[in-house]
Amino acid sequence: MDAPHPGHRTRVDGNAAGGILLELFGRDMTSARAACAHCEREAELADAIAELDPAGVILLCRGCGRTLLTCLRDGGSATLVIGALSLLRWPADG
Ligand SMILES: [Zn+2]
């Protein structure tokens, strides 16, 4: 298997973070609305810029490039680091 070297990041859109977000939140978060505390841009998480690396996913604001959210997986634990994210809103089920 071709493992990316450390520090290698692939820049894609927020849909690519769907898998890890689904694991962390237990639901599809790509359609959740996220607001940036820095530039006040509000958009679906799927619209954010996602940087994938072996440790997890970094979601960046498409408006100002600040880190909104970092999702990390390390063995048995998952970590969510809140960056410039000021709001996260998703439809409540039932
Ligand atoms: Zn922003």
How many helices? The count is: 1
Helix content: under 10%
Radius of gyration: 13 Å
Order of helices and strands: EHEEEEEEE
How big a fraction of the residues is strand?
35-45%
The rough form would be described as: globular
> What spatial order of strands do you see in the largest sheet?
1-4-5-6-7
Uncertain stretches: none
Structural class: mainly beta
Characterize the biggest β-sheet: 5 strands, antiparallel
The count of domains is 1
Ligand set: zinc ion
Number of separate strands: 8
Q: Tell me the distance between the termini.
A: 42 Å
Overall pLDDT score: 89
Describe this structure in words.
- Helix content is 9%, strand content 43%.
- By secondary structure, it is mainly β.
- It has one domain (10-88).
- The strands form 2 sheets. It has a 5-stranded antiparallel β-sheet with strand order 1-4-5-6-7, with helices on one face. Strands 3-2-8 form a 3-stranded antiparallel β-sheet, with no helix packed on it.
- Strand 6 (67-74) and strand 7 (77-82) form a beta hairpin.
- The mean pLDDT is 89.
- Bound molecules: zinc ion (ZN).
- Residues 36, 38-39, 41, 61, 63-64, 66, 84 line the site of zinc ion.
